[in-house]
Amino acid sequence: MLKNIVCWLFLVGSLQLGLAHLNEKYTIDIYAGNLNNLTIKSEPFIKINDGYYYFGMDGVNWYVAYEKCRALNSELVTFETLQEFEAVANYLKARDHKFNYWTSGNDLGLEGSYNWFTSGQSITIPKWAPKQPDNSGGREHCIHLGYIWGYSTDFELNDRPCANDQNSLFRYICEAPEPETISIVVWK
């Protein structure tokens, strides 16, 4: 333990001395944002408004969908605003992708209390299908987005079994954090 502390102190001291020396010879400026509006590659994610989304095409249960998103360093989608929900729904409608998609929503923590898994916030957007969520059969705990009823004309939210149900193998939407860039320019 003492060895680790001494090594850490040596590293911090060396860094400070190095930066002090650099400051004498070079001008160091730090800027925030995307300088010169560089194009940032976001594949396999698609930029929709301010968000980055991946649309998984294979039908899986909620847990596998979550694992697939985590493998992409992302999370199942959390709709924080009605505008975000509408933007994603409009993107899917424009491509005629009227499928069911898992979201991060569930009531796994407390039955009947539906929250976004990734943020812990209550699901407040008014996009539930009529008479949903209903926890049909006492086993519907995960939330998906889809055209719920035969007469549905838009994407809505509904609860379904998270796993162990052949009728609940859905596509999924992953949401990634906004990419960050770092540039280092040294002027001599």
From TrEMBL:
Coiled coil: none annotated. It holds the Pfam family Lectin_C. Keywords: Signal. It comes from the Eukaryota. Residues 48-171 form the C-type lectin domain. Residues 1-20 form the signal peptide. CDD domains: CLECT. This is C-type lectin domain-containing protein. It comes from Drosophila willistoni. The lineage of its organism: Eukaryota, Metazoa, Ecdysozoa, Arthropoda, Hexapoda. The gene is Dwil\GK27513.
